[in-house]
Specification:
- The chain has helices spanning about 10-35, 40-45, 80; strands at about 45-50, 55, 90-95, 100-105, 110-115, 130-135, 140-150.
- It has two domains: about 10-65, no CATH class; about 80-150, OB fold (Dihydrolipoamide Acetyltransferase, E2P).
- The chain has three helices and seven strands; from the N terminus they run H-H-E-E-H-E-E-E-E-E.
- The strands form two sheets. It has a five-stranded mixed beta barrel with strand order 3-4-5-7-6.
- Pfam families: CSD.
- InterPro entries: CSD, CSP_DNA-bd, NA-bd_OB-fold.
- This is Cold shock domain-containing protein.
């Protein structure tokens, strides 16, 4: 006689399928017996408290704060608004006249700022003390209106 074609793993898989089918039938009967649809709106409502957390209780009207709509700012302030208006002072740390650009070391912040010969008002040379303003460019800050100080 031949061996049975049913192996242990086949039996286990069939048991798992039967159990899954039974569970599915049980869930179907539970849904029919206890319908979750038709619940009232109050049980489904969620509120936000003063800290921004979701809660099931409505907010207390006595804790309500009045907010002026003009005080609400949406977006980020423009780059021109954030730029410094006062001229800065610095020393020309490097300048290549043939290429037409150089760098200024700011005296206050010790920051190195790029400048181009188109931003010069007075001709400058290495180690000159200058005053300048900073302009935001796509490649970073750049010095403009560079004037040689006496």
């Amino acid at each position: 006689m031949g061996r049975s074609q049913e192996t242990f793993s086949k039996k286990e898989k069939e048991k798992a399928r039967q159990k899954k089918r039974k569970d599915k039938e049980q869930k179907k009967e539970d849904r029919k017996a206890n319908p979750s649809r038709g619940t009232d709106l109050d049980t489904m409502m969620a509120y936000v408290d003063e800290n921004g957390n979701l809660t099931s209780t409505p907010p207390d009207p006595s804790r309500k704060k009045a907010i002026d709509l003009d005080d609400i700012v949406i977006g980020v302030s423009r780059q021109e608004d954030m730029a410094e208006v006062a001229p800065r002072e610095g020393i020309v740390s490097s300048y290549t006249e043939s290429k037409g650009y150089g760098f200024i070391r700011d005296l206050k912040s010790q920051q190195t700022v790029f400048f181009h010969k188109n931003g010069l008002i007075d001709p400058v040379s290495l180690q000159d003390k200058v005053s300048f303003q900073i302009e935001a460019t796509p490649k970073g800050p750049s010095a403009i209106e560079v004037r040689k100080l006496a």
